[in-house]
């Protein structure tokens, strides 16, 4: 018995995407329309099958976030004044101080939220953007999961900024003790915001297009 074309070529059947089916979904409200319509019937947003300028915005926000992330680690995050003596702490310096005081759990949280997650986001976003134009070993589904994970955990990088804001508002005892945010707090907040904008600028539909091109 003669097999079909897929058996002869040894290729997996192509995934039926909305683009192949002649459909386009609204990125604002999710309503699906037939291709050819310019505006969404529900929310009035402009309909685009693919955002071809997506990668340009991704890289622009990515580089902006990387530029401000460097001073966020080099300059002090906290400026503490106690009985006239002033000390400054960087992010890594604060982690080391917490470990010296036995607060290993808090030190781990700060290290993961302020060092591991931001660096991981930079690497993940760059990997996703590069995978659109180059062959990668990860499947399209795996890249989609990675994209959703980056979008979800991005906001949790602000934990360090929240801690600085809370301490600065609570510890204001004039000469006895006071805590003020350092210049690194602003840089770190900007870095988190820029990387979140970079992830949100990414059009995940491009992932599946790249997968189809590799399969072809």
Give an overview of the whole structure.
- The chain has eight helices and five strands.
- It is mainly alpha-helical and 216 residues long.
- It has two domains: 1-49, no CATH class; 51-215, Butyryl-CoA Dehydrogenase, subunit A, domain 3 (Up-down Bundle).
- The strands form two sheets. Strands 4-3-5 form a three-stranded antiparallel sheet. A two-stranded antiparallel sheet has the order 1-2.
- The radius of gyration is 24 Å and the shape is elongated.
- Mean pLDDT is 75; it is low at 1-13.
- InterPro entries: PqiA-like, PqiA-PqiB_transport.
- It is found in: Cell inner membrane.
- One of its GO terms (cellular component) is plasma membrane.
- The chain crosses the membrane at residues 59-84, 104-132, 153-173, 179-197.
What labels describe this entry?
single chain, 216 residues, mainly alpha, Butyryl-CoA Dehydrogenase, subunit A, domain 3, 2 domains, 3-stranded antiparallel beta sheet, two-stranded antiparallel ribbon, 8 helices, 56% helix, 10% strand, disordered N terminus, transmembrane, PqiA-PqiB_transport, transmembrane helix
